[in-house]
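Researcher: We plan to redesign the surface later, but first we want a full-length starting point. C-alpha cells attached.
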C-alpha cells in the first residue's frame, strides 16, 4: 500500500471537503482518503494511480497536484 499526498485548491468549506473525500474514495484502489481544508491537502492510502486521483478531484471542480 502506498500513500499519495495531494495539494488540493479551490475548497472553501466543509461541503467541498466532503465532495473531494467522496470523489477520492470512489477511485478504484483507494483504501482511505483524508482531506484537510486548512492545509489544502488530501492524503490517500491505497494502490490507485495519482493520475486517477487528480482526475477525480478535477471532475468535482477543484485543482490537485501531487506534492
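Model: Full-length starting sequence:
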Amino acid at each position: 500500500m502506498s500513500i499519495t499526498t495531494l495539494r488540493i485548491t479551490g475548497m472553501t468549506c466543509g461541503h467541498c471537503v466532503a465532495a473531494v473525500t467522496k470523489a477520492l474514495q470512489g477511485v478504484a484502489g483507494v483504501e482511505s482518503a483524508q482531506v484537510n481544508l486548512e492545509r489544502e491537502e488530501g492524503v490517500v492510502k491505497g494502490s490507485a494511480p495519482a493520475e486517477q486521483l487528480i482526475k477525480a478531484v478535477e471532475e468535482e471542480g477543484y485543482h490537485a497536484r501531487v506534492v
